[in-house]
Design brief:
By secondary structure, the protein is an all-beta fold. 1% of the residues lie in helices and 47% in strands. It is built from 1 helix and 25 strands. It has an 8-stranded mixed barrel with strand order 18-19-20-21-24-25-23-22. The chain has a 5-stranded antiparallel β-sheet with strand order 11-10-13-16-15, with no helix packed on it. The chain is globular, with a radius of gyration of 22 Å. It starts with a strand and ends with a strand.
């Protein structure tokens, strides 16, 4: 058959009852992909479609929040997301949308590479789960105090990161990660939903973990260099045709930095290689990351110091902090993002910049830590933010 299948399932915590079974409407795009509705007890919606690009999104349902939405493909190692499904002949993509009421806390487990191993959690959430599984506690009473959830250490795995996402009526008690103790401190405010994702990477038994980031010596691509030498002008060669940037109608507005900047597309000229030399005072969208405002992780970069020996648009990027907001104006709408983390990393830690996300995230990146003796930058700054509003 020349067709493919896109299957969507609905899960709610708590599970819907016969007396109170909310119905969730889904919006779709793509050739012949029809909108539909599901309840927690419905059979998944299964539509046969021609190969091509599709998307599926959930309409707002009163009294419920979208906790997470994930997709898996029948093709090994192929990444699919609800907002950007690329179907091939014979492929089956299954997506699950998970909804919870306000005042809910949850943990999710993600492992790399994918494994059948299980991980034990204890504290305010208790249970044993594996990759892409959840422990959820809905409708709890916020106390104004932090709720501790810990993952039991596993000798075959290193806990690489803990990411907590707050949605709904986001309050002032900010959730925090305590990576050293394998702990998430969940700050649940009234009306809020908090999902903390624990991400583990497998340890090679022949190469024990040193606990030092970026110490491997394998050759690997690096995060683009966005700063020129400080103290003198830099002559730039003519921009080759194959490195030309694509113009867009998209604007990045960083109100706290007093910036309103046009976004251009930077082609991926080799395996995870982008040349940002000619950005000037534009912002560059890195091809290969999610297109701006689409589901996934969009990577935007700008100079910290430009070729004319002046501070670049992202010279003060490091000052953005948790809770700060910025906007992307695109397609006649304004998308509002809220900062969740700011981190200084090594140039070789490109996996942190390109980290996969199911929801609409933006990663802002630039250089940091100028070394005048080498006329180079020691680090990269990444600021990660999640979509919180659209108008």
């Amino acid at each position: 058959s020349s067709q493919a299948h896109l299957i969507v399932d609905k899960v709610t915590f708590p599970a819907g009852s016969a007396e109170e079974m909310p119905e969730f409407s889904f919006l779709t795009s793509g050739n012949g992909y029809l909108p539909f509705s599901l309840t927690d007890s419905s059979q998944p919606n299964d539509q046969a479609l021609l190969p091509g690009f599709y998307s599926v999104a959930e309409a707002i349902t009163e009294g419920w929040h979208l906790l997470d939405a994930v997709c898996t493909s029948s093709i090994a190692n192929k990444v699919q997301a609800p907002g950007s499904v690329n179907l091939e002949i014979g492929e089956v993509v299954s997506c699950t949308f998970i909804n919870v009421p306000p005042n809910t806390i949850a943990v999710k487990k993600v492992v790399d590479p994918v494994s059948q191993d299980k991980f034990e959690f204890y504290g305010s959430l208790n249970g044993t789960i594996g990759h892409n599984q959840y422990i959820v506690k809905p409708r709890i009473e916020p106390s104004g105090e932090y709720l501790s959830v810990r993952e039991k250490a596993n000798k075959s795995w290193k806990l690489d990161s803990i990411v907590c996402e707050e949605s709904g009526t986001v309050g002032s008690l900010v959730s925090k990660a305590n990576l050293k103790d394998h702990e998430a401190l969940i700050g649940l405010d009234p009306g809020e939903v908090v999902l903390c994702t624990f991400i583990n990477k497998h340890l090679d038994p022949e190469l024990p973990d040193t606990g030092i980031p970026g110490t491997d010596t394998d050759s690997q691509p690096e995060i683009p260099k966005t700063g020129f030498p400080i103290g003198h002008l830099t002559d730039l060669p003519n921009q080759p045709l194959y490195k030309m940037y694509a113009s867009t109608d998209i604007i990045l507005k960083l109100t706290s930095l007093g910036m309103e900047l046009p976004v251009v597309g930077i082609p991926q000229t080799d395996n995870e290689i982008w040349d940002v030399s000619w950005l000037n005072h534009n912002v560059g969208y890195l091809e290969g990351s999610a297109y701006p405002t689409w589901a996934g992780n969009t990577v935007l970069t700008a100079h910290v110091w430009d070729a004319q020996n002046r501070p670049g648009p992202f010279a003060q990027l490091h000052t953005l902090k948790h809770g700060d907001q910025f906007e992307i104006q695109a397609f006649g709408q304004t998308y509002v993002y809220e900062v969740r983390s700011s981190e200084r990393i090594l140039a070789k830690e490109i996996d942190k910049m390109l980290r996969h996300e199911e929801k609409d995230w933006v990663t802002l990146v630039t250089c940091e830590g100028y070394d005048s003796t080498k006329e180079d930058y020691r680090y990269r700054r990444i600021v990660r933010a999640i979509l919180t509003d659209k108008r």
